[in-house]
Automatic annotation (TrEMBL):
PANTHER family, per database record: 2-C-METHYL-D-ERYTHRITOL 4-PHOSPHATE CYTIDYLYLTRANSFERASE, CHLOROPLASTIC
Lineage: Bacteria, Bacillati, Actinomycetota, Actinomycetes, Propionibacteriales
Residues at the site labelled Transition state stabilizer: R20, K27
This protein's name: 2-C-methyl-D-erythritol 4-phosphate cytidylyltransferase
Pfam families xref list: IspD (PF01128)
GO MF annotation: an example: 2-C-methyl-D-erythritol 4-phosphate cytidylyltransferase activity
Reaction equation(s) it catalyzes: 2-C-methyl-D-erythritol 4-phosphate + CTP + H(+) = 4-CDP-2-C-methyl-D-erythritol + diphosphate
Pathway, per record: Isoprenoid biosynthesis; isopentenyl diphosphate biosynthesis via DXP pathway; isopentenyl diphosphate from 1-deoxy-D-xylulose 5-phosphate: step 2/6
Function in brief: Catalyzes the formation of 4-diphosphocytidyl-2-C-methyl-D-erythritol from CTP and 2-C-methyl-D-erythritol 4-phosphate (MEP).
Biological process terms in GO annotation: isopentenyl diphosphate biosynthetic process, methylerythritol 4-phosphate pathway
């Protein structure tokens, strides 16, 4: 439920092919325990309090997405050639006012818990320009330099998840600037940072892992089974 006095809206980017997953279908339509990843992602955002949902979809799969999202009130728009382009097209399709909180979420992070959605929303309502959920890095990290490598202090590193939040007007403007300048970034926090905005970090969650390779579906299925015992 949204307890804030501004609308909270979302773009769920689902237009990728999922080449690393290697399924017959676009990745967002692949089912996890009989429910499409995109449906799980949209349901989690609705549980977290969003009121308007735009989903970017690949050309040629509109009907399958419509079926997967039946009853959610989602609007579908075609995505672009990159995630960044899909986000820009999705933002353009939202009807909410510029001061609405917008959350951009990867359909591939299908198991994001609603409390992460709420944390990101609250950070924006409380005044952050941009908010992203993060987790500490658990592996030792090396940076490849010249012919060798060197240790990086992992205490300083965080792995970034979605949803990423901002005010709708601010995020639209950031993406327009990237397009005008021909700059590619990997996420929406970096898009806002390009325009000089400050990024706030909130705690992410292991369940918001990005389903990328076939083994990730096995992990995700195990997480779902474990959730029933929580
Ligand atoms: N042109 C694109 C590319 C990606 N995405 C979305 O961005 C999210 C993160 O991308 P990723 O998980 O890397 O998905 P794919 O690009 O589909 O994967 P791959 O690189 O394995 O092809 C996904 O929900 C994906 O559907 C999108 O909407 N439009
Ligand atoms: C947005 C993201 O999921 C944050 O970790 C990530 O940057 C997407 O990158 P990808 O290369 O499109 O998977």
């Amino acid at each position: 439920m949204n307890t804030h006095n501004v609308p909270v809206v979302t773009v769920v980017v689902a237009a990728g092919s999922g080449s690393r997953l290697g399924a017959r279908l676009p990745k967002a339509l692949v089912e996890l325990d009989s429910v499409a990843l995109v449906r799980r992602a949209v349901d989690a955002l609705l549980d977290g309090g969003v009121s308007e949902v735009v989903v970017t979809v690949p050309v040629g799969h509109e009907e399958a997405f419509r079926e997967a999202l039946a009853g959610t009130g989602s609007r579908l728009v075609h995505g672009g050639a990159t995630r960044q382009e899909s986000v820009r097209l999705g933002l353009a399709a939202l009807a909410a006012p510029d001061d609405a909180v917008v959350l951009v979420h990867d359909a591939a992070r299908a198991l994001v818990p609603p409390e992460v959605v709420q944390r990101v929303t609250s950070a924006i309502v409380d005044g952050a320009d941009v908010a992203v959920p993060v987790l500490p890095v658990v592996d030792s990290i090396r940076s490849v330099v010249g012919g060798g490598s060197e240790v990086v202090d992992r205490a300083m590193l965080r792995a970034v998840q979605t949803p990423q939040g901002a005010r709708l007007g601010l995020l639209r403007e950031a993406h327009e600037w990237l397009r005008r300048d021909g700059v590619e970034v990997t996420d929406d926090a970096a898009a806002c940072e390009y325009r000089g905005h400050r990024v706030a970090l909130v705690p992410g969650h292991r369940d918001a892992m990005k389903i990328t390779e076939p083994v990730d579906l096995v992990f995700a299925s195990a997480l779902l089974a474990e959730r029933k015992n929580r």
